[in-house]
Amino acid sequence: MATAHGGTTAGTSQTKRPRRARGPATPSRTPAAAHDRDLLRQMLFIRRFEERCVELYSAAAIRGFVHLYIGEEAVAVGVHQALDEADAVVSTYREHGHALARGVPPEAVMAEMCGKTTGYSHGRGGSMHLFDAGRRFYGGNAIVGGGLPLAAGLALADRMRGESRVTCCFFGDGAFAEGEFHETANLAALWGLPVPFVCENNPYAMGTALAREHAQTDLAMRAASYGMAAWAVDGMDVHAVEKAARGAVESTRAGSGPHFLEMRTYRFRAHSTYDPDGYRPKDEVEEWKRHDPVTGLADGMRAAGFLDTDAQEALDHEVMEAIDRAVRAAEQAPEELAEDLLLHVTGRHEEAAPS
Amino acid sequence: MSARTRPRAHPDDGTTTYREALREGLREALASDDRVFLMGEDVGRYGGCFGVSLGLLEEFGPDRVRDTPLSESAFVGAGIGAALAGMRLVVEIMTVNFRLLALDQILNNAATLRHMSDGQLGVPLVIRMTTGAGRQSAAQHSHSLEGWYAHIPGLRVLAPATVDDARHVLSAALADPDPVLLFEHGSLYSAAGTLDPAVHEVDLDRAAVRREGTDVTVVAYSGCVPKALEAAEELAGTGINAEVVRQAVQRVVPGADFTGLDPDASLRDTFEMDSLDFLAFVEALAALSGRELTEDDYPALDTWNGCAARLVAEADAPAHGRSG
Ligand SMILES: Cc1ncc(C[n+]2csc(CCOP(=O)(O)OP(=O)(O)O)c2C)c(N)n1
Ligand SMILES: [Mg+2]
Predict the structure, then answer these.
(1) Contact A120 B117 (CB under 8 A)
(2) Which of A78-92, A156-170, B295-309 has the lowest mean pLDDT?
(3) From residue B101, how far is each of A154, A241, B48, B75, B76 by CA, in Å?
(4) CA-CA distance, B126 to B52, in Å (whole number)?
(5) Which residue(s) pair with B91 in the sheet?
(6) Distance of residue A270 Cα from the nearest chain B Cα, in angstroms
(7) Could you tell me the residue ranges of all domains in chain B?
(8) Hey, whose CA ends up nearest to atom 8 of ligand 1?
(9) Is pLDDT above 90 for A167?
(10) Which of A233, B312, B316, B320 falls 20 to 30 Å from A88 in CA-CA distance?
(11) Which has the minimum average pLDDT: A37-46, A48-57, B36-45, B282-291?
């Protein structure tokens, strides 16, 4: 699918391009290279976008709780390679990366974060509640585990209408401890609902480490006990994520019921902009940073001859320009009027009419 | 079609029960709109915890009359998700007390998504459940939490009281673009009455006068309406002519032209109801339960023109709640 910040995901058209008959192919021109550049662009975009959010938060242009995705970019970008435009996505409060990977325009995301009316929720949702009904991006949920049942329902509607869409549901290792996860996993498996569950195991729920919140920390194994295919994936490796997601989504779409992917990942920053991050050893953070998904991909691309310094610089420049544009647009956009507070508390009757 | 699949308890005398009237409403909705389905614990094979959906599984199949596991949060949340995707569904929860396990989904998702997404995501979902005391079921099966839910912006709270209400409330609720909570009083299910052939719909925004009267007005909802009507008959024997008004909804919908009671149809000689927030009114009455009220008691009562009122409620204990 195309994303709004310039990239396209692995296009099959590219793989079908006729091969040049003579001479060795330039590595940077192969479909694999183009695909990797696209992955890198998207991950880099999320990284820089999040870094800019930190600045804007310090300047009080963004307020409220902000949860950064830095370190986890490979999960959103890799998983989205496997999704179509018709599919749905249900996310969490740590969802800027999911929204951008889904193709929600960065201008709209940034405006929403800044509480401006050019955000898709008119600035009402803010950082934790990005919604884009048109792209079937159903948020953005600040209740841990709260989105899981919604995903089952969206998928149930598709099942009942014979649609071959899937509803991809992101949530964390902390959400895995919520009753809503277990109720939903059972329901989805019982009814064979088309839900790829993507658990972002960044092994902390705020300040609580995985082993302090789960008696059995092998989450994939526990998910499998509900009767769905489940496995753990190196969530710092975008290729591994993409491969696993394609497998899970294709199988889900083909009708074999929900799948569960435990993405082993890490957040490099604190839980939220509110968190002094005093609960985990610094060398643990440093160790995970050695597996940085963005630099990891870039290094691999350089080694394969897919990326040189010029291309890297051009990419950096392109990404920064796009983010600058989004920030400028957000800064100039108006805030919602206080008089509009009561709009959309309830709907109009015409909306309920058969479509 | 077997007798079991088309149950009708009183085919001869023209009466029906509240339960059958609700079932007819469900049957009509399922038959007329294929987006509609019913989901909940034991709604299918068992026929509904209180027998409301008896026979509907056989008629509409297990996809559309869908039994769920005991996972209130998951299946109410799934109902919200399916509503977001364009289905029109009715979720049944056995009783109001069990519904508390789904309160997060009702409040944080169903009632909130529309506002938080600036109108992008509406949740046209109907949730039915049993409410009320009076059946010797003790506190955990007897609460009347309508008032609680009425405090949540974005929800519509309804409590059908008569067979006409029960018969027609569902189509009105399904036509609503927002989550509607239907509270069915447990002691009413077997109550029989005659459907008024002239009534084809329920007005969700207006109260209804169930008995004309001139001396005193009784406002009630749900299981209290039949009791109020009974009381009015008794009063008539003593020469007092009581009017009984069935309250329409429990919450004033922002922007809607709704004052809780219809000033033209009722109470016109007693006081003006034009700008009265009915919820504030009920709260005020509840706070002052059992006392004679005057203008001095509560600012909302200014609109009462000094008229005195009394809220008749049970003692403030869990096992009683507001019993019917
Ligand atoms: C039901 C609920 N309980 C607690 C919180 C407060 N809270 C917000 S995020 C969070 C940690 C969630 O951890 P996890 O699911 O692993 O996601 P992560 O933040 O690591 O991405 C907590 C406890 C909440 N928002 N909702
Ligand atoms: Mg976590």
Answers:
(1) yes
(2) B295-309
(3) 21, 35, 19, 11, 10
(4) 15
(5) B39, B127
(6) 26
(7) 15-194, 208-309
(8) A144
(9) yes
(10) A233
(11) B282-291
pLDDT value, residue A122:
96
Query: Does some domain include residue A341?
Result: no
Number of residues in chain A = 355
The reply to whether A223 falls in a domain is yes
Q: Do B177 and A345 touch (CB under 8 A)?
A: no
**Domain enclosing residue A208, as ranges:** 31-327
Q: Tell whether A333 is within 8 A of chain B (Cβ).
A: no
How far is the C-alpha of B295 from the C-alpha of B197, rounded, in Å? Answer: 42
Q: Does residue A340 belong to any structural domain of this protein? A: no
Spatial contact of B192 and B10, defined as CB atoms under 8 Å apart = yes
d(C-alpha B105, C-alpha B93), whole Å? 13
Q: Please give the Cα distance from A45 to A76 (Å, whole number).
A: 12
Query: Could you confirm whether domain B15-194 is CATH 3.40.50.970?
Result: yes
Is the CB–ligand 1 distance for residue A199 below 6 Å? no
DSSP summary character for residue A25: P
**Total count of domains within chain A:** 1
Q: Strand, helix or coil at B248? A: coil
Per the listing, tokens 């204990």 go with B317
Does position B282 have pLDDT exceeding 60, yes or no?
no
Question: For atom 22 of ligand 1, which residue has the closest CA?
Answer: A206
Q: Which long-range contacts (CB under 8 A, 24 or more apart) does B230-235 make?
A: none
Taking only the tens place, the pLDDT of each residue in A21-30 is 555 567 888 9
Please tell me the number of the ligand nearest to residue A274's CA.
1
Dihedral pair phi/psi, residue A250, rounded to 5°: -60, -45
Please name the residue ranges forming H helices in B194-260: 224-237
Q: What is the CATH number of the domain that holds A68?
A: 3.40.50.970
In this structure, the number of other CB atoms found within 10 A of the CB of residue B61 comes to 13
B208-309 folds as Rossmann fold (3.40.50)
Residue A222 is inside which H or E element, if any? helix A219-224
**Which of A131-140, A268-277, B93-102 is least confident?**
B93-102
Instruction: Test A149 with B153 for CB contact under 8 angstroms.
Output: no
Contact flag A342-B33 (C-beta cutoff 8 Å): no
- C-beta separation of A90 from A170 below 8 A: yes
ipTM: 0.91
**Comparing B224 with A219, which gets the higher pLDDT?**
A219
A226 CA → ligand 1 middle, Å: 23
What pLDDT, on the 0 to 100 scale, is given for residue A64? Answer: 93
Q: Is the pLDDT of residue B219 over 80?
A: no
**Cα distance from B69 to chain A (closest Cα, Å)?**
7
**Over chain B, what is the mean pLDDT?**
76
More confident residue, B72 or A27: B72
**Which residue numbers of B are catalytic?**
72, 141
The span from the CA of B178 to the CA of B183, in Å, is 16
Nearest to B81 among A131, A153, A355 (CB): A153
